[in-house]
């Protein structure tokens, strides 16, 4: 779950609590975020493929009108995006006036998130993983392009917000807590520092008044691609204070010196990691290049 500013206080433990007219019981905690908790709930004959739902409980207590509107925005944008197979399915929202929480009933993904699949299981670092990397990345890319086509910009794309099924062969995009419908934003620093483009941090050579949310999502996709190929980030932060990123600005082929990436992968990353957002590749052209790749790593 994405962290939010001005979050309310600690959340009440709802294990054992029943919702949906008593049909769903919250039996354990799956995750904790600033604005709520995600619980596991047996589906009891519902439509969940795994036999369980993930129930995101968003607290309404202590929220002002602006914060409540952000909560409604998250639910609305996720509902629209949920029509894509590579976005975690949102089945139902329960928002009773007398209840202090909103309950968002989602598909449960038993294999955890992509971050764990990459770092703990090293699923994509084995030999001859090119086809799997291509498949997984294109699933993420398809979800993002679908969202963009409906005017939805995620703004917090990272492996922790991508959930896994089928042992990491299938992935779905999750957590629309920071998503927006605005093509341009003045909300600098929105998202996770490791994955945001330089324009989202205000720019490098000059101070920007706004940034493209679509282009920033593409930058995040590039960092995710590096993670899939190499199991690590290319740098800590895309700013001149970061020594690695500073060297990349000086010498764009520098990533081939520090990462085991192929020339094909390097060429794609240079199209993604452009300082100017208007020079950055779009999702459609990115997909074409990804499909043409034979090897992501040095052979």
TrEMBL record:
Pfam family for this entry, one: Pkinase
Keyword annotations from UniProtKB, A to Z: ATP-binding, Kinase, Nucleotide-binding, Serine/threonine-protein kinase, Transferase
One GO cellular component, as annotated: cytoplasm
UniProt-annotated binding residues for ATP: 56
Gene Ontology BP annotations: intracellular signal transduction
GO molecular function: ATP binding; protein serine/threonine kinase activity
Domain Protein kinase: 24-294
InterPro entries recorded: Kinase-like_dom_sf, Prot_kinase_dom, Protein_kinase_ATP_BS, Ser/Thr_kinase_AS
Classification via SUPFAM superfamilies: Protein kinase-like (PK-like)
Domain of life: Eukaryota
Coiled coil: none
Family: Belongs to the protein kinase superfamily.
Name this protein carries in UniProt: Kinase-like protein
């Amino acid at each position: 779950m994405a962290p939010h500013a001005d979050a309310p206080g600690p959340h009440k433990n709802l294990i054992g609590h029943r919702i949906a007219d008593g049909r769903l019981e919250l039996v354990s905690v799956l995750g904790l975020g600033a604005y709520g908790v995600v619980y596991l709930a047996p589906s009891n004959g519902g439509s969940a493929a795994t036999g369980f739902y993930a129930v995101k409980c968003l607290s309404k207590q202590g929220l002002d009108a602006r914060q409540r509107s952000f909560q409604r925005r998250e639910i609305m944008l996720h509902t629209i995006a949920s029509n894509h197979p590579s976005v975690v399915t949102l089945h139902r929202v329960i928002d009773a006036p007398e209840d202090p929480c909103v309950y968002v009933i989602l598909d449960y993904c038993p294999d955890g998130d992509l971050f764990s699949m990459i770092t703990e299981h090293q699923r994509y670092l084995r030999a001859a993983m090119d086809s799997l990397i291509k498949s997984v990345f294109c699933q993420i890319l398809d979800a993002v392009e679908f969202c963009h086509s409906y005017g939805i910009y995620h703004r917090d794309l990272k492996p922790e917000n991508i959930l896994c099924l089928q042992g990491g062969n299938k992935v779905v995009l999750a957590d629309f807590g920071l998503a927006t419908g605005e093509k341009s934003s003045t909300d600098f620093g929105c998202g996770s520092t490791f994955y945001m483009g330089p324009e989202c941090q205000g720019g490098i050579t000059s101070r920007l008044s706004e940034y493209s949310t679509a282009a920033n999502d593409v930058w995040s996709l590039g960092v995710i691609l590096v993670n899939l190929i190499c199991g690590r980030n290319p740098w800590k932060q895309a700013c001149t204070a970061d020594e690695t990123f500073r060297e990349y600005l000086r010498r764009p082929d520098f990533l081939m010196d520090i990462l085991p990436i192929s020339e094909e992968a390097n060429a794609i990353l240079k199209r993604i990691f452009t300082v100017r957002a208007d020079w950055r590749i779009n999702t459609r052209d990115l997909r074409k290049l990804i499909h043409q790749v034979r090897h992501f790593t040095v052979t």
